[in-house]
Design brief:
Helices cover 68% and strands 0% of the residues. The chain is built from eight helices and no strands. Helix 2 runs antiparallel to helix 5 (100-119), helix 3 crosses helix 8 (166-190) and helix 4 runs parallel beside helix 6 (131-148). The longest helix is centred in the middle third of the chain and has 25 residues, at 71-95.
Amino acid sequence: MDLDALAVFLLIVAMAAVIQTVTGFAMGLIIVAVTTALGLLPILESAAIISILSMVNTILVLRSTPQRFDPKLFGWVVLGLIPSLILGFLLLDTFSAVLDTALKFVLGVMVVVAGVVMMLSPAPWKTRSSNGSALAVGFLGGFFGGIYSAAGAPIAFFLYRQPVAVRIIRLTLLAVFFVSTFSRALIGVYFRSFYGSRGSKNGAGLTGGYCGECHAATSTRTFF
């Protein structure tokens, strides 16, 4: 990336950070979508950069708070997330060149849906969702996380609808996103894709990055 492209990328990051501060959501998704649309970076290269920020942010926040996350919600979401994370990663690795246009189209749809979600402010449900619901949401989020490094939308929306204190939900989100980030990095290393050795055959340069949706958990405003 030359200096001009780097300057544009940093401007996108700054813009996404401002939107993140206002809305409490979608910083990573915005960065991935805009950089892909402008052709600055492939999806997974930008996600790899974001993942570094996300992991550091998550570790610092979790270490600085004495409160605990919700272990039950965390466990069922992660249980559904890990298998689909692998599935999405392998799907992108195999079909990224063939389905490049379709993948970008679906990414655009995700951005629109995330924008609609940010405008909603639904009240929490009266009772907690079933374990199966948490498992299904984790699977959905993991699948999109494997493809786009953007698993945050369905998971954040689901967790913020639970009748649990907001601070606990935020910590649970941070814990889930840390596991997602770390797991995706391990998947990339396992398939020798972290440095693009395998993904280069499709022109994708696959990495182990994960989108920085975990920043949603630390925002001062909540729209779920």
